[in-house]
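Q: What would this chain look like folded?
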Amino acid sequence: MVDGIAVTNWYVVRSKDRSESRVVRELARKAVATFLPLTEITRRFRGRRRSNLEPLFPGYLFVRLESIAGNPGVWDAVRWTPGVRAILGGDGIPDPVPDHVVEAIQERVRDLGFVRPKLDFASRDRVIIRHGPFAGLEAVFDRGLSPSGRVQVLMKLLGRESRVQIDALDLELA
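A: My prediction, written as structure tokens:
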């Protein structure tokens, strides 16, 4: 405590596999502040694109707590929450995460409520098309077209360079 105000820090909690959301719900019932950053993952399933939100750091979430000396009961409540494996630290003492690190992640998540990965391609990168009617052909990445993942590539078709729109998931660097 500093001047009668409890000082809190962020700590990292390791959860059991795929239990991050459950831990967040359980800790909310115990009035423990949590932060579970999410990212949008897009995959193909039966020929269709499916986007899901998954933890940015699978198996980990952040909790905001007083020091263990200041309130050991809350620490025990967190440790014994269903789905929690451990609070990260060394020698049995949890290590706080600097506020600026968590704030940087929160800033990244703020606009959409999750992180949307950016395209891994830059203009003029050589790419190979992996799916669809042009599978196996090489092209040159031109530009992204939409947030849904459509991009434009340049391909040699019938002896001339043509612009083709394609799904970014169908591409990989050559």
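Residues 127 and 173 are 4 Å apart (CA to CA).
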